[in-house]
């Protein structure tokens, strides 16, 4: 079969692990697990970071079991990539490895008052004050305001920051840190695509922006190191809690936010090529090449990918719709109109 590659796809509604032939791109095996969402109050959306992590381990182990049943040698898996739901915010303790609060999901709206408070500090209450640095407007959507809310409202996180124990990351950072070595030397990193969704990252210098960190009052020492989307971050380790170690020693060597990964997966490498993806939400991304283009019509500017340490960053324009496939789960779990997601297709027809 030749070399194989594995992909951890940690989405908002589910986690998947997929194994492909690295030469032909043929999908050889995969496993998928649905993820719970918690709604503590109206407009609040949370997930348990440990459940997310467990779902990754379960998907990896089950996929490897399926491959053995197909007589495919898992030793041929040479590299693993990570793609993840973007903007979802986790803070954890570097000494214990435990999350200090649930993950606040990108859909969450609790930070509306945080946004309003921050706007009062901006001349003219200009929501696009950081647009030309970050590509983003001030919004409940992005990670900086979620992190600000956690720092303002969760005593345990405040204390961990004071003690130098707190680590912030989007889901990719949390997974890579734990899957590589966790408290025994885990790598605290993210890639440029995920960093570009925080409102703390300068998309031109490709570095955390000190002025924005100061504006949001976020200590820079809790932020992950920013790397390219394609390099070796570290090697997978055994997970003692699940005796999960099928891919121990395999390098994690790719990381992209899910919509950026879809742009790459659809091979939109030319300026002007675009993809539209229907998942939990709906996202249209258009490659603008090595030039950052700024929209006057509500699109956001984001980093599309950076394929190696010494490679240039490519940019994209993005249009986002928060609810697409998520309505299917709502019809099933909230209204009870259907018993399974598959039934929606019959009604749609």
Automatic annotation (TrEMBL):
EC primary class: transferase
One biological process term in Gene Ontology: triglyceride metabolic process
Domain Carbohydrate kinase FGGY C-terminal: 275-341
Protein name in the entry: glycerol kinase
Lineage: Eukaryota, Metazoa, Chordata, Craniata, Vertebrata
Domain of life: Eukaryota
Domain Carbohydrate kinase FGGY N-terminal: 5-265
Keywords: ATP-binding, Kinase, Nucleotide-binding, Transferase
GO CC, one annotated term: mitochondrion
Xref: Pfam families: FGGY_C, FGGY_N
EC number: 2.7.1.30
Xref: PROSITE patterns: FGGY_KINASES_1 (PS00933)
GO MF, one annotated term: ATP binding
Biological source species: Hypocryptadius cinnamomeus
InterPro entries the record matches: ATPase_NBD, Carb_kinase_FGGY_CS, FGGY_C, FGGY_N
Protein family per UniProt: Belongs to the FGGY kinase family.
Gene: Gk_1
Pathway: Polyol metabolism; glycerol degradation via glycerol kinase pathway; sn-glycerol 3-phosphate from glycerol: step 1/1
